[in-house]
Amino acid sequence: xxxxxxxxxxxxALSTGAISVVDLTAPLGxxxxxxxxxxxxxxxxxxxxxxxxxxxxxxxxxxxxxWMELGEHTGTHFDAPAHWISGKDAPDNTTDKIPPRNxxxxxxxxxxxxxxRANPDFLLTADGVRAWEAExxxxxxxxxxxxxxxxxxxNSSTEAFLNADENGPHSPxxxxxxxxxxxxxxxxxxxxxxxxxxxGSAASFNPPFPAHHLMLEKSRYGLASLCQLDKLPPKGAILxxxxxxxxxxxxxxxxxxxxxxxx
Length: 263
Ligand code: 23J
Ligand code: MN
What we know:
It is a single chain. The mean pLDDT is 97. α6 links the parallel β11 (189-191) and β12. 20% of the residues lie in helices and 25% in strands. The longest helix is centred in the N-terminal third of the chain and has 14 residues, at 3-16. It is an alpha/beta fold. It has one domain (12-44, 71-261): Glucose Oxidase, domain 1, CATH 3.50.30.50. The chain has a nine-stranded mixed β-sheet. The chain is globular, with a radius of gyration of 19 Å. It starts with a helix and ends with a strand. Manganese (II) ion is lined by residues 73, 77, 79, 83, 196, 224, 251.
């Protein structure tokens, strides 16, 4: 293996389109849906807001710039281990400490779009993952597992995206045994197209919010509000995703990019 030849080949494959770059990121703006937790849990993240400093005007005749009011867990974002109590003392648990090696990894995309169309509360189970592996191959250590639901198609409407009624939010995610199984495969993390990595019903699980509790406890990561997973193959794409290097950050909005080989 000649590592510089490999990189040269990647660049040339990008220029011919043999490898394409798919953007898995939702637009980040005032209309970006944010999580709304029930009142007993206390406070919520405010909506994204851009404060203009100048726009080629008397406050800055030659420049436009702004500052953002932005939650760590807003839009397409990364969950660092310190986000959850179980990851409070996990190694390298904040966004500034995660080794950059972890920001480039293969991804497995499990298509649950049909099940979710029939049932927005659909849960992917360990058996569901095993059935997927029987068809597409084993989930390898160090890879992401992303749940495709086509839920991202709702993200222009907060109401449709959060999909809550008097019984709480209805959105898909992993079961407890799904996350337990993925940890036995030594995955790097779990990603979902919904507002958070866990299902809308996950507050009632044991433990509650397993994608948060169990993944972050083991210094694994989460990705939420991913888009365009329907543009990825089940296996073979490489995910490039990094949180901002926020000091002591519990998470961060990201730009998530997939490198996808032409089929
Ligand atoms: C805070 C509390 C509960 C949850 C979350 C945040 C998220 O989903 C998140 O964005 O990490 S479930
Ligand atoms: Mn989060």
